[in-house]
């Protein structure tokens, strides 16, 4: 009987793990009895379950690299895990720390004399933001009045959130995920240093870019304005010189004819305190 139970075990049958335990064997005849205790163990092939070997693991970059996986079996099985695709065991905790290269799928094998069992484990590696890069589209050299955008990209797990430090201006528009900022009708207030900071629960990292707003066209416009003024003064002087040097022809001129005639001239020439005065007499229409 098992463990002092009154029921008796008779005959033979297929062994199961439930048969393991301590049995009391009693031999009896008319002269007496003898008792002996027997311990029965049941050996069986390995198995790997979710409890001892979760199918998904989360590692953090820089921590010891360790992939523990427990399996059941009798005798106790040996468990070895290797990353699929390279056949290498994960580094021992004392020899290496986790890097992003450790992410992937590992196959764990439990083995004892009665067989083996397999289980795949997916490992994800979290890490602080890295490789922050900024890009100005279409260019970091912007013409006054043109539109441009600054995009920020960063690696990181979990996916980082983004923050900005940039020249304050009213013409800024941020994307819904805050990864980019668009500027319409660039002005002097939009030039300067644009800094993007990527953050997750493992840390933060920043990157910067300088945007230049080219306002040389304003100087050009001012120059052209000055040139226009000088030109107007020059034309006025030239006109006066023409009138002054054209031979005077006395007579009456119709204004319509005088405007288009090469013979248009002054009719009256007088000397005055301020110099010579020339005039054109027009007939009544």
Automatic annotation (TrEMBL):
GO CC aspect terms: plasma membrane
InterPro entries listed in its UniProt record: ICAM_VCAM (IPR047012), Ig-like_dom (IPR007110), Ig-like_dom_sf (IPR036179), Ig-like_fold (IPR013783), Ig_sub (IPR003599), Ig_sub2 (IPR003598)
Gene3D superfamilies per the UniProt record, alphabetical: Immunoglobulins (2.60.40.10)
Pfam families cross-referenced by the UniProt entry: Ig_3
Residues spanning the signal sequence: none
Single GO term (MF): integrin binding
UniProt-listed SMART domains: IG, IGc2
Entry's transmembrane regions: 217-243
Keyword field contains Membrane: yes
Segments forming domain Ig-like: 46-124, 129-212
Example GO BP: cell adhesion
Keywords: Membrane, Transmembrane, Transmembrane helix
Protein name: ICAM5 protein
């Amino acid at each position: 009987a098992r463990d002092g139970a009154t029921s008796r075990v008779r005959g033979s049958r297929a062994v199961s793990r439930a048969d393991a335990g301590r049995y009391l064997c009693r031999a009896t005849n008319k002269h007496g009895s003898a008792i002996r205790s027997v311990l029965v163990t049941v050996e069986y092939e390995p198995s790997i379950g979710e409890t001892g070997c979760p199918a998904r693991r989360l590692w953090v970059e820089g921590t010891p690299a360790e992939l523990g996986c427990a399996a059941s079996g009798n005798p106790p099985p040996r468990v070895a895990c290797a990353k699929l695709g390279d056949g290498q065991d994960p580094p021992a905790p004392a020899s290496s720390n986790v890097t992003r290269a450790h992410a992937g799928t590992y196959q764990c094998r439990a083995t004892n004399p009665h067989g083996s069992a397999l289980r795949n484990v997916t490992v994800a590696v979290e890490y602080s933001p890295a490789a922050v890069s900024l890009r100005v589209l279409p260019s970091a050299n912007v013409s006054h009045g043109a539109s441009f955008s600054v995009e920020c990209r960063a690696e990181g797990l979990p996916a980082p959130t983004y923050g900005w430090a940039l020249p304050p201006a009213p013409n800024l528009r941020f994307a819904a995920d805050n990864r980019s900022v668009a500027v319409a009708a660039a002005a002097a207030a939009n030039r300067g240093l644009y800094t993007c900071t990527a953050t997750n629960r493992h840390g933060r990292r920043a990157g910067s870019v300088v945007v230049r707003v080219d306002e040389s066209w304003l100087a050009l416009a001012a120059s052209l304005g000055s040139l226009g003024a000088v030109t107007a003064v020059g034309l006025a002087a030239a006109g006066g010189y023409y009138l002054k040097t054209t031979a005077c022809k006395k007579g009456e001129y119709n204004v319509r004819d005088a405007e288009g005639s090469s013979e248009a001239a002054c009719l009256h020439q007088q000397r005055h305190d301020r110099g010579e005065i020339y005039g054109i007499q027009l007939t009544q229409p």
